[in-house]
């Protein structure tokens, strides 16, 4: 019996062959090269320029005093806004007061560092300097009031001179008399004092610019490289003497300390320690005695006989003579 053949499989095979004989061709769409000028890469933003001067202001238990200081400080600056910054260090005020100070600083774009406890002037300014970005550091007491004149220009002019590391300025009492025109050593009583203290504010020798033994930390401009080299203020000095110590170390490092009477500010003195009443607390007297003893343990061997004596009277600028004498002593010790 003849078998019948179903033609359907053949048709499927033929259809399959036809399909395989015509491979699919995938055409890529025409593309046009993108001009280089149309690159979509995002440009890297330029870093913000570092300020020329960083103002470091320690304070404790004060708000209005700091605002008054910053207001007068900003009014007397001739620098553009990007050329300076404010770094305020609250050295242990109660948290509610620190929060109040933070709000008060907003109009000044000031940065606030909050210390949990009172660490002392030296550590407070060191903390502020650690976050400051300026080429120069300007230490300022929170109770200073500045004139509406470009006082900083005179200080910058001096610190940019070769070999200069520190520059101080003329400070006046609220009544107008001189408080500070450089630091002098008084051999008879073995202590330091401000030169020309209580003389008229426009006393001619105090208007000069000259080398001095030291300047007060209430208003001190320091070159950043020197600050880093010396490690900032010596934190072993809790209350005072740290500015004298820093000035002496500046000379020891081979840099000069200058005073200029062309820059000035008004300084009530003592308000940085919270208020006048606080300055009489037994705590402050205790810390002052300890700090003084520590200073003389460190430097006492240098302050023996031979120092020019300001108490002999006359119009000689003894801070300049003593600066020269200090340099002579340093050369002999090498």
What do you see in this structure?
- It is a single chain.
- This protein is an alpha/beta fold and 334 residues long.
- The protein has one domain (53-333): Spore Coat Polysaccharide Biosynthesis Protein SpsA, Chain A.
- Helix content is 32%, strand content 19%.
- Strands 1, 2, 3, 4, 5, 6, 9, 10 and 11 form a nine-stranded mixed sheet that branches. Strands 7-8 form a two-stranded antiparallel ribbon.
How would you briefly describe this protein structure?
This protein is an alpha/beta fold and 334 residues long.
Question: What are the SSEs and their pairings?
Answer:
Elements: H1 8-20, E1 53-59, H2 64-75, E2 84-91, H3 95-105, E3 111-115, H4 121-131, E4 136-140, H5 151-159, E5 164-172, E6 178-180, E7 183-186, E8 191-194, E9 209-211, E10 219-223, H6 224-230, H7 242-252, E11 256-266, H8 282-299, H9 318-333
Parallel strand pairs: 1-2, 1-4, 2-3, 5-11
Antiparallel strand pairs: 4-10, 5-6, 5-10, 7-8, 9-11
Question: Total number of β-strand segments?
Answer: 11
- Main sheet overview: 9 strands, mixed
The appropriate CATH architecture is Alpha-Beta Complex
Shape: globular
> How do the helices and strands follow one another from N- to C-terminus?
HEHEHEHEHEEEEEEHHEHH
CATH superfamily: Spore Coat Polysaccharide Biosynthesis Protein SpsA, Chain A
Q: What is the average per-residue confidence, as pLDDT, rounded to a whole number?
A: 86
Amino-to-carboxy terminus distance: 131 Å
Q: Can you identify the CATH class?
A: Alpha Beta
Q: How many distinct folded domains? A: 1
- Rg, Å, rounded: 34 Å
Helix content: 25-40%
SS summary, helix count: 9
Low-pLDDT residue spans: 1-28
Query: Strand pairing plus helix content: what structural class?
Result: alpha/beta
**CATH T-level fold name:** Spore Coat Polysaccharide Biosynthesis Protein SpsA, Chain A
Q: β content, as a range?
A: 15-25%
């Amino acid at each position: 019996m003849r078998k019948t053949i179903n033609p359907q499989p053949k048709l499927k095979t033929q259809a399959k062959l036809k399909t395989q004989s015509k491979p699919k061709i995938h055409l890529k769409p025409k593309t046009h090269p993108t001009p280089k000028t149309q690159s979509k890469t995002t440009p890297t933003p330029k870093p913000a320029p570092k300020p020329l001067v960083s103002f470091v202001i320690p304070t404790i238990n004060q708000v209005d005093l700091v605002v008054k200081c910053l207001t007068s400080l900003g009014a007397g600056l001739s620098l553009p806004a990007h050329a300076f910054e404010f770094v305020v260090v609250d050295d242990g005020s109660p948290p509610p007061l620190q929060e109040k100070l933070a709000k008060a600083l907003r109009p000044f774009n000031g940065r606030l560092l909050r210390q949990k406890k009172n660490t002392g002037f030296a550590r407070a300014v060191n903390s502020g300097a650690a976050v400051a970005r300026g080429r120069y550091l300007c230490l300022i007491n929170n109770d200073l009031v500045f004139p509406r004149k470009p006082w900083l220009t005179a200080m910058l002019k001096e610190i940019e001179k070769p070999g200069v590391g520190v520059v101080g300025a003329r400070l006046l009492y609220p009544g107008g008399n001189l408080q500070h025109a450089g630091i002098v050593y008084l051999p008879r009583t073995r202590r330091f004092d401000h030169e020309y203290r209580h003389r008229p504010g426009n006393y001619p020798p105090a208007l000069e610019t000259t080398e001095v033994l030291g300047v007060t930390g209430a208003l001190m401009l320091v070159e950043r490289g020197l600050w880093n080299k010396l490690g900032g203020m010596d934190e072993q000095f809790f209350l005072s003497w740290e500015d004298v110590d820093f000035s002496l170390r500046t000379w020891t490092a081979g840099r000069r300390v200058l005073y200029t009477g062309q820059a000035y500010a008004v300084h009530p003195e003592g308000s940085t320690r919270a208020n006048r009443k606080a300055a009489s607390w037994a705590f402050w007297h205790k810390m002052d005695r300890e700090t003084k003893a520590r200073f003389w343990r460190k430097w006492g061997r240098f302050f023996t006989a031979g120092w020019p004596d300001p108490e002999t009277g006359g119009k000689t600028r003894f801070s300049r003579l003593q600066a020269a004498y200090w340099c002579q002593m340093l050369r002999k010790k090498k």
